[in-house]
Amino acid sequence: MAEAAVTAQRRSRITPERAAELYEAVLGLLREVGYDALTMDAVAARTRSSKATLYRQWGGKAELVVKALRHNKPGKIDDIDTGSLRGDLHALVGMEDDCTREQNSALMRGIAMAIHQNPDLRQAFQELLIEPEMAEVQRVLQRAVARGEVRPDCPALDFMLHMMIGGFVTRALLDEQPPTRAFLTSYVDAVVLPALGVRTA
């Protein structure tokens, strides 16, 4: 316990403002050179930090990159509560404007291959990004179940995140276009809500 407290104390020395600067620099490098070519030396040089400080704070490149991606998200799903599942999902896809979503989609496409090739990045991505988001989505769905909008035994509940991610990924792959807000809103109404048994008319 004492060792964990000391580690937490060491990791808290960087201010939130400084961490935000570092995350922006990491994302900039990620866009320029990709994950594999991104090095802690390059991050240290661009941010005028010591490499020892970066390792002490983030442990390694994988955690630093994933936390930068998480920091880049426009808000928390937990902050959304419109009173209806349809309203919540529309608010969710509206958290980013189309320009930002296009930039972030390109960034995620670039890192997708690296996730498959780097076990440490895959683990960090799962633990620090996917699992927290899945928990937030589950809370949105639990509210919908509690309101009586969705049956608690609806089989599509287990595939909610898959459906949402599918809308983002397939738009880029099949249509070669970024997933705009208009497309995602229509996708929610035509695919996601009907699968959950929610009427949109």
Descriptive labels:
73% helix; Arc Repressor Mutant, subunit A; 10 helices; elongated; 201 residues; Tetracycline Repressor, domain 2; mainly alpha; 2 domains; 0% strand; disordered N terminus
Brief synopsis:
With about 200 residues, the chain is mostly helical.
What would you note in describing this structure?
This protein is mainly α and 201 residues long. It folds into 2 domains: 1-61, Arc Repressor Mutant, subunit A (Orthogonal Bundle); 73-201, Orthogonal Bundle (Tetracycline Repressor, domain 2), CATH 1.10.357. Helix content is 73%, strand content 0%. It contains 10 helices and no strands. The chain has helices spanning 2-11, 16-37, 40-47, 51-58, 61-71, 85-93, 98-117, 119-147, 160-174, 181-195. α2 (16-37) crosses α3. The longest helix has 29 residues, at 119-147. The chain is elongated and about 55 Å long. The termini are far apart.
Q: How would you summarize the topology of this molecule?
A:
Elements: H1 2-11, H2 16-37, H3 40-47, H4 51-58, H5 61-71, H6 85-93, H7 98-117, H8 119-147, H9 160-174, H10 181-195
Helix pairs in contact: 2-3, 2-5, 2-7, 5-8, 6-10, 7-8, 9-10
